[in-house]
Amino acid sequence: MTKNTAQNSTTALQVVERTLLWLKVIGALLVSLVYTAVCGLYSLTPRKYRRHEITGKVALVTGGGSGIGRLLIQRLAKHGATVISWDVNEAGNKETVKILEAMGKECLAYTVDLCDRHAIYRAADDIKAKGIKVDILVNNAGIVTGKNFLDSPDELVLKTFEVNTLSHFWTAKAFLPAMLSSNSGHVVTIASMAGKIGVNKLIDYCSSKFAAVGFDESLRVELMVNNYDGVFTTQVCPYYINTGMFDGVKSKILPIMEPEFVADEITEGILLRKQEVTLPFYSNMFVFLKFIINIPSYLRTMQISGSNESMDTFIGRNKPKTN
Length: 323
Known about the structure:
This protein is α/β, with parallel strands linked by helices. Helices cover 50% and strands 13% of the residues. The strands form 2 sheets. Strands 3-2-1-4-6-7-8 form a 7-stranded parallel β-sheet, sandwiched between helices. Strands 5-9 form a two-stranded antiparallel sheet.
């Protein structure tokens, strides 16, 4: 075989490989369009026919001593789940237990500092020692400082990441193995719309929530690649919620949501095994804008809409608020 013939053969092989690659890409796009259409039609089915039963399942909610966490515990218990509350606030935990008892339900409560991974592992070991398998893990606890970047104390930046992000790793490491062993479970990540778009005076918060979004998306991919089709993940990205965590915040376009509505929708997301719950659903328009217009135009749009000023009236405290 001559040198030219060999080169021609190599070139032909490369052309064939490129062609096959493009055919695969086109095929994947066509399949994704069909799958999107099927999912769209499925979403039109009334929710009551799509909910999954959680009676008898064990649901653990971090930050269950107040706010959205407490509301989620109440709703999950109403749907028949056995509930566990983790919170650094012992008094808040006790109040949650009292509320559940008044409902005729039981609630196991642990005072856990989510900034301490060893405390997380000890509490998890205690639960497992009782023969309890956590079926639904809701990483809900979160904190916010609400200061300009250079005004944010190092200690609060670290704490923001420890609670909003790193604790998700430790809780998942503690409870995910049993889910994988039975190929049954659900990991819920309460992130934020601030995990998809940057916000003035929320650099540490946004960064931690961007990481939480990445945690959920990457975990979902890993579960799929390893064929754990019975273990689900749900990413929750709400706008501002009127829980007290963001007291003083003003919003010109999107509504500040009531916690009861948010808790209802998160619970529905769990029951429907949704991969993502965005609240309000149309807030994704800001994410869409990031992809269709250039950065200067996007920044100007955010400025005109007043989004960059939403934290200007935030009421700061000596210590960060928790939800």
